[in-house]
Specification:
Blueprint: E1 7-8, E2 13-14, H1 15-18, H2 20-35, H3 45-54, H4 73-76, E3 81-88, H5 102-114, E4 119-123, E5 126-134, E6 137-142, E7 147-151, E8 161-167
Antiparallel strand pairs: 1-2, 3-8, 4-5, 4-8, 5-6, 6-7
Amino acid sequence: PIFNNGSYTKYNFSIGAKGCGLSALATVNNYYRDAYDLSITSTTPLTLNTYLKDNNGYSLKKEELGAVKFESIRNLSDSHIVFFRATTICTDAKKCPRIVTRNDLIGAINTDLSKNKPVIIRVPGHFMLAVGKCGDKYVVSDPGSNQTALYDPNGARKLTGIRQFKLANNP
């Protein structure tokens, strides 16, 4: 991919190696910008990385050091786009406030896509952006391969979580 050589966060990783969440968030910004004719700046993973480094957009918590703070999109987009929910599969009632299954995540993705809202999906060690549906599979923009592909949430790379966004003035 074109942004492989940019230094990711303040650490010794390239965007190509560790920047899938960053790249997916840049695509979310540009999707909403173009789809809703928002007067916000288009961004690339490289420019978003710089913005996040300069604006406390990466987690400093030890267990998630360097992870993208998806809520940073609100300031980046001049409050037009809002990150409103991160949901992860949790089937142990003792460890989570509510049970969330893969089918719950699939239902949320389907709802958002039916409203033309892309969803960042999480698989083990990776993020992709779901932008459409084809049968039981999702059309995804995969920052790791720099291409659009079909993704099966029940396949080899099982869906484990989602990140959802919306326009600030639209439920």
